[in-house]
From TrEMBL:
It catalyses: N2 + 8 reduced [2Fe-2S]-[ferredoxin] + 16 ATP + 16 H2O = H2 + 8 oxidized [2Fe-2S]-[ferredoxin] + 2 NH4(+) + 16 ADP + 16 phosphate + 6 H(+). Gene3D superfamilies: Nitrogenase molybdenum iron protein domain, Nitrogenase Molybdenum-iron Protein, subunit B, domain 4. Binds 1 [8Fe-7S] cluster per heterodimer. Coiled coil: none annotated. It comes from the Bacteria. The gene is nifK. Residues 24-443 form the Nitrogenase/oxidoreductase component domain. Its cofactor is [8Fe-7S] cluster. This is Nitrogenase molybdenum-iron protein beta chain. Belongs to the NifD/NifK/NifE/NifN family. InterPro entries: ChlB/BchB/BchZ, Nase/OxRdtase_comp1, Nase_comp1_CS, Nase_Mo-Fe_CF_bsu.
Length: 460
């Protein structure tokens, strides 16, 4: 197996990443753009980048992800890709008829120094952008940041291009979704509808990347935030951003551009973060929390109480994205599990500080690292030094799970070898139940597999 030769002696590394715990910026930009109705993502670079980004999204969502590319060859790589992009814009609008083209850069086009804003302005001048259609852009060089940075940059680009203030305040709340599954976006809308809150959710990949099989291929599925909805965000009462890494820059842009005040809160994963989310929403919209939401909370609490003995004291290793990891480790600590190892390839000094604060009281021994050298190799070394009872993270952990025989719950991006993540939410109180059900499932399977015959239990 790939990691069988991992040594357990950790050595300081500065310039080497082995099996990174992150992926490319443009993947995030593509995912955010797919949450806009009628939008075609466009990769300004070589074909290989676009193929890799599309295939990763397609493998995770099990849906055909459409995206165009500027298709750089040697000429464009040396002299710049302006001609390719102008040509692409012209062809895409005449052949594929999107409402919006969302262009993101790649390592190559950034290194050449292509100015997307200038090229798009030229396309407009040259009459290549039809009346009522839009071309938006984001800078996403993959030698900095991660897929989360790319998502944040595209979200900011969308807000910058569309949001407009008419000075007529609308009784609606903007919800900037962090990078979550289509099922989670649907769950956020359901919760807001139960609370009676009119809202604009941006982006919204439900009914795009979990669209039903109808027997007919829809190039632009019916889901996604519409242009009029995004424009109206400039007149909303308030903006709530879910996850600092994915939504902060868009929230700031919206406030600067349209004077819509904002607050950031964690993704509602688990009890405490969902409590904060529900209270922040209620405050922003000026509503009270309905009984139906309290009842969902009660169900989650009931499950925690019923099954606490199976969670208690279990050591957990996690990897993934900062916005998911912070509320998730808080949730695990809340139910007396021990998140002892945490890595994220996404940079940002605040992550490790915040994670240590969350775990300071209950898991002071936790090892936490993020950035370029916080990789799956390091995670494996920590586990070899002192094992854990459970792994939580994306598919790339399956090698460690197999080599070390550790129960494994797949969460995060990408999940390339299982289904269900697009359909069953992990956000909110009901999502908390789903997370616990998955954790319990693998822990109890392991107990069943390992228990001697005399203590093999029918009822657990
Ligand atoms: S790292 Fe850069 S060159 Fe490689 S696939 Fe990503 S965007 Fe393309």
């Amino acid at each position: 197996m790939l990691l069988r030769h991992t040594t357990n002696k950790v050595k300081e590394r500065e310039a080497l990443t082995v099996n990174p715990a992150k992926t490319c910026q443009p993947i995030g930009a593509m995912y955010a753009a797919l949450g806009i109705h009628g939008c075609l993502p466009h990769s300004h670079g070589s074909q290989g980048c676009c193929s890799y980004h599309r295939s990763t999204l397609t493998r995770h969502y099990k849906e055909p992800v459409m995206a165009a590319t500027s298709s750089f060859t040697e000429g464009a790589s040396v002299f710049g890709g302006q001609a390719n992009l102008l040509n692409a814009i012209n062809t895409i609008f005449s052949v594929y008829e999107p409402e919006i083209i969302a262009v993101h850069s790649t390592c190559l086009s950034e290194t050449i120094g292509d100015d997307l804003g200038q090229i798009i302005a030229k396309a407009r001048e040259d009459g290549k952008i039809p009346e009522g259609k839009h071309v938006i852009h984001a800078s996403t060089p993959s030698y900095v940041g991660s897929h989360v940075t790319g998502y944040a940059n595209m979200l900011e680009g969308i807000v910058k291009h569309f949001a407009m203030s008419t000075d007529e305040i609308k009784r609606q709340v903007n919800l900037l979704a962090g990078w979550v599954e289509p099922a989670d976006m649907r769950e956020l809308k359901r919760m807001m509808s139960v609370m009676g809150i009119k809202n604009v959710l941006l982006p919204d990949t439900s009914e795009v990347l979990d669209a039903p099989m109808t027997g007919k291929h829809e190039f632009y599925p019916k889901g996604g935030t519409t242009v009029p909805e995004i424009v109206s965000m400039g007149d909303s009462m308030f903006t709530l951003g879910l996850g600092e890494w994915a939504t902060k820059s868009a929230a700031i842009k919206l406030e600067n551009q349209c004077k819509v005040k904002f607050a950031l809160t964690d993704l509602p994963i688990g009890i405490s973060a969902t409590d904060r989310f529900v209270m922040a929403l209620a405050k922003a919209a000026g509503v009270s929390i309905p009984e139906a939401i309290s009842s969902e909370r009660g169900k989650l609490m009931d499950m925690i109480t019923d099954m606490h003995q199976y969670f208690y004291g279990k050591r957990v290793a996690l990897w993934g994205d900062p916005d998911q990891l912070l509320p998730l480790i808080e949730f695990l600590a809340d139910i007396d599990m021990k998140p002892v190892y945490v890595v994220s390839g996404t940079p940002g000094k605040a992550f490790s500080k915040k994670a240590h604060e969350i775990l300071a009281e209950k898991v002071p021994e936790a090892k936490i690292k993020n950035g370029a050298t916080a990789d799956m190799f390091l995670m494996h070394q920590w586990i070899k030094e002192e094992p854990v009872d459970l792994l939580i993270g994306n598919t790339y952990g399956k090698y460690i799970a197999r080599d070390e025989n550790i129960p494994f719950v797949r969460m995060g991006f990408p999940i390339l070898d299982r289904v269900g993540h697009s359909y069953f939410p992990t956000l909110g109180y009901m999502g908390g139940i789903r997370i616990l059900e998955k954790i319990l499932g693998v822990l109890m399977d392991k107990m069943d597999a390992d228990s001697p015959e005399e203590s093999f239990e029918l009822v657990m």
